[in-house]
Design brief:
Elements: H1 5-16, E1 62-63, E2 70-75, E3 95-100, E4 119-123, E5 141-151, E6 154-159, E7 164-169, E8 173-179, E9 186-190, E10 201-207, E11 212-220, E12 236-246, E13 252-257, E14 260-263, E15 267-269, E16 285-291, E17 298-306, H2 310-320, H3 327-342, E18 345-348, H4 352-365, E19 370-371, E20 378-380, E21 386-388, E22 397-398, E23 400-401, H5 402-405, H6 409-416, H7 418-434, E24 442-444, E25 447-448, H8 456-466, H9 474-486, H10 509-515, H11 528-548, H12 552-561, E26 569-574, E27 580-583, H13 609-612, H14 620-627, H15 630-641, H16 678-691, H17 708-718, E28 720-722, E29 730-732, E30 739-742, E31 750-753, E32 763-769, E33 772-774, E34 778-779, H18 781-786, E35 788-795
Parallel strand pairs: 31-35
Antiparallel strand pairs: 1-2, 2-3, 3-5, 4-9, 5-6, 6-7, 7-8, 8-17, 9-16, 10-11, 10-15, 11-12, 12-17, 13-14, 13-16, 18-30, 19-22, 20-21, 23-24, 24-25, 26-27, 28-29, 29-34, 30-31, 32-33, 32-35
Length: about 800
């Protein structure tokens, strides 16, 4: 088998082809050629089907930017307690049991979260309880993708039964046109208890006099069926209310509970529980309304939702969708809202496929955070009580997949939508105050779910502040997060939910502060090595934040804690081929956890030592030094992206190499900038962009994780990437498009010009920042906080001299 140096030789062979063409530091770039026109109608390039296969777990339904309502199908594979994918829709499953009102983009647990109140247009008489139809043999229908259309803000589907549904939404409400065959019974089923994870309780009331259907579901249980601690989350934490009104009278009504059908009834209730399979099958409640389709086979429904009250759902509907508004009207407004949001980045040039990948990724990135406050500002608190947004806060947001999002999605949000970012930061602070000062790492609606590991909120809010976000109580938030990081909490000794959903947010903090690492045998966490690395990233970010706030003593303490990753770096740990120096878990007595293998996940969360060894974005120079120097580290990084024969290995499936489907290593392609070999970042990122991402349902490499994987693509296509959490610095790569403008609120736009950008020019030859030549492969905070211009000269071969001087490397 060839040795690792063959990988380095492969890079060297490419570099040897370099022909210097005046691309020296300080060179003035030639005037740009006529720029390609910038996209003015970005929704034309959005394909909501991207990511609905290949484990992307996106959903194709109707949603507005940051919307509360997300109206999308719930599919079935013949088990009413499960679906084909985490969010209820998998492109390869072409049978559905309803159109549900709420979804979370790209959650990884299956089933993931929400999927509340599936509403099913059913052709036929209701002669038995739909809950008793546990295999979805009767009250479900097949469909063809040829009869399905998804665009931003609208979803349309024709079912094999002959019924059709056309849906459009505002932020908290929606309107639907249902049509039925004229010669068959026409009914709408409200499966009020049938959320993706089940429910504790549900209720429905049918008001025939006012043509209304109202109800609610008490549910939650995100990741509640997960094997590694999921039982901890088999509990309720929110109630979703809905109010639906119709344009015509009901011809019939009925309700059901479990196996009992009640034709003519107008009230019903009952939950399903949070089990799965046979333990839950046949349970639940709902109701239906029937229509006379002999002369008029169209039914229009308007629906509002709220997490606060029935009155809130009705007020949201009343304020957002007027009675006379059609699906077309609401859809046009939705498309305009998405065009405004997506126009925050206008690209020029590139192919149709590249623009489709880019704008769909931006669309997925800006789906969240999600509104949970009503139009009057009320929302459900983490203490289970109703609250109102704080003074100056426009809305309360939720759905925080912290362990995922802090690496890319929150930076994109801060860069493009600082007002939303600030309200989101305030929202998380509000939740923490309602939760006894505890900041949970994975928040769904108003529930603390504890999913994953580390303290990602600290890294998130520190990044927001560094990037110029100020519309939140940043002093109070910092003090609260600093307290969580320094004062042990009783939950830190709990093993409830472990390993995947450990209750403690800074588990066994006293031991961590004493030992300077999370001892694997007593950490009460999902892997002592992973916990140490995550906390080191969070603490380094808190240190940067404290420094910006002028709190120098706290800054120094947290900055020092940011170096504690060194205490789980074992210079003697090897892979059997002569390479040594890996992150490895340790026990309380200081001994290394054995047996050790770089391809093992022992001590880690959803990753291996081979991946986590690179997860030190706050101290890349220190990591390189620990490995034996930048050149040694770069050769090891070469082997992380290549097989021993020098061929690429960037699609996942190899425990020793790069995995584009999960977060711990997604920053790794950008580490070459700090190692003095930025041309390798350029070619590696381009390889991933070109081969791992794409168009069509399989266009995402894995769980989108609330826009994280999509945000990685957006940044990479722009030739930018966040340097480290808690910083506004950006690393530079080669842009995919010849031109781009980041249109930012209150000025401070960022303009990117790369006239040579195409498939044959993946390398940077020279860069100007605001008209001045730069020999650095990164920018400081001024570009983000003040805006500016980046001008690139790209080449078809690497410039191995640009941005390589040790003094100019990112730290």
């Amino acid at each position: 088998m060839p040795s690792r140096p063959s990988v380095a030789r492969a890079f060297t062979a490419r570099a040897a082809a370099l022909v210097l063409t005046g691309a020296l530091a300080g060179a003035v770039l030639p005037p740009a050629a006529q720029a390609a026109p910038l996209v003015t109608h970005p929704t034309a390039y959005v394909d909501p089907m991207i990511g609905t296969a290949n484990g992307g777990n996106t959903y194709p339904g109707a949603v507005r930017p940051y919307g509360m309502i997300a109206w999308s199908p719930t599919s079935t594979t013949g088990d009413q307690t499960s679906t084909g994918a985490a969010n209820g829709y998998e492109y390869g499953v072409t049978r559905m049991r309803g159109l549900s009102l709420t979804h979370v983009n790209g959650a990884g647990c299956n089933p993931g979260a929400a999927g509340d109140v599936p509403i099913m247009p059913f052709v036929g008489d209701v002669t038995s309880s739909p809950s008793a139809d546990s295999k979805d043999a009767v009250y479900a229908s097949g469909f063809s993708h040829a009869d399905e259309r998804a665009v931003p803000g609208r979803y349309t589907v024709g079912l094999d039964s002959g019924a059709t549904a056309d849906l459009a939404v505002s932020e908290r409400a929606g309107v639907a046109d249902f049509s039925f065959p004229a010669d068959k019974p026409a009914n709408l089923l409200f499966r009020v208890s049938n959320s993706l994870n089940g429910s504790e309780d549900a209720e429905i009331e049918i008001d025939t006099a006012h043509r209304k259907v109202t109800g609610s579901v008490l549910t939650g249980a995100f990741c509640g069926r997960r094997a590694n601690g999921g039982t901890n989350n088999r509990k309720s934490y929110y109630r979703l209310y809905f109010s639906a009104s119709f344009d015509r009278d009901f011809a019939s009504t009925g309700t059901w509970r479990d196996g009992t059908l009640a034709p003519g009834a107008t009230r019903g209730s009952g939950g399903e529980g949070y089990a799965t399979g046979a333990d839950r099958a046949g349970r639940g409640s709902g109701g239906w309304v029937g229509f006379d389709a002999s002369d008029d086979y169209d039914v229009r429904m308007r629906i509002g939702i709220s997490y606060v009250s029935q009155a809130g759902a009705e007020a949201n509907l009343r304020k957002e969708i007027a009675p006379g508004k059609s699906v077309d009207d609401v859809a046009r407004a939705g498309a305009a809202a998405w065009d405004r949001e997506l126009a925050s980045v206008r690209v020029g040039g590139g192919s149709d496929a590249q623009r489709t990948s880019f704008y769909t990724a931006l669309y997925h990135s800006l789906m969240q955070p999600n509104l949970i406050s009503d139009t009057d500002g009320r929302y459900p608190g983490m203490d289970g009580k109703p609250h109102r947004v704080t003074r100056g806060q426009k809305a309360q947001y939720s759905n925080f997949s912290g362990w995922d999002q802090y690496r890319a999605q929150i930076q994109l949000l801060a860069l493009l939508k600082p007002r939303i970012a600030g309200d989101f930061a305030q929202s998380l602070y509000n939740f923490a105050r309602q939760n006894g000062g505890v900041w949970d790492r994975w928040v769904h609606i108003n529930g603390a779910t504890h999913v994953m590991t580390g303290d990602p909120t600290a890294a998130t809010l520190a990044t927001f502040y560094a990037m110029g976000v100020r519309n939140f109580d940043y002093e109070g938030a910092f003090e609260s997060l600093a307290r969580q990081a320094t004062v042990p909490h009783p939950d830190g000794f709990s093993d409830a939910g472990c390993p995947g959903q450990c209750t403690g947010q800074r588990p066994n903090l006293a031991q961590y502060l004493e030992s300077h690492y999370a001892a694997h045998d007593v950490c009460h966490c999902w892997g002592g090595a992973a916990e140490t690395l995550e906390d080191a990233v969070a603490d380094a970010a808190l240190g940067r934040w404290a420094r910006l706030l002028g709190r120098d003593e706290e800054a120094a303490a947290f900055e020092e804690r940011g170096t504690w990753w060194r205490n789980v770096f074992n210079p003697e740990a090897g892979d059997g081929s002569g390479t040594t120096g890996y992150i490895q878990a340790r026990d309380l007595d200081g001994s290394w956890v054995t047996p050790f293998s770089p391809g093992s996940d022992r001590g880690f969360a959803q990753g291996t030592s081979a991946t986590y060894t690179w997860m030190v974005p706050q101290d890349v120079q220190g990591l390189a030094e620990a490995m034996g120097g930048r050149d040694v580290a770069a050769k090891r990084l070469d082997a992380f992206f290549h097989k021993p024969d020098g061929s690429w290995s960037v699609k996942g499936g190899d425990a020793l190499r790069y995995d584009p489907t999960n977060e711990p290593g997604i920053h790794a392609p950008w580490l070459y900038n700090a190692l003095g070999q930025p041309w390798k970042t350029q070619e590696t990122v381009r390889e991933i962009v070109a081969t791992v991402y794409g168009t069509g349902p399989r266009g995402l490499p894995g769980n989108d994780d609330l826009g994280t994987m999509s945000a990685w693509y957006v940044f990479s296509a722009l030739g930018l990437y966040p340097r480290t959490p808690g910083s506004a610095g950006l690393l530079l790569g080669a842009p995919l498009f010849p031109s781009a403008v980041l249109d930012r609120p209150k000025g401070g736009d960022i303009t990117i010009s790369a006239p040579q950008a195409d498939a044959t020019h993946p390398y940077i030859d020279a860069v100007e920042v605001n008209g001045r030549a730069s020999d650095r492969s990164w920018t400081d905070a001024r570009l983000v906080t003040g805006g500016g211009e980046l001008t690139y000269r790209l080449a078809d071969r690497p410039n191995t001299s640009w941005a390589t001087r040790p003094a100019d490397l990112p730290r």
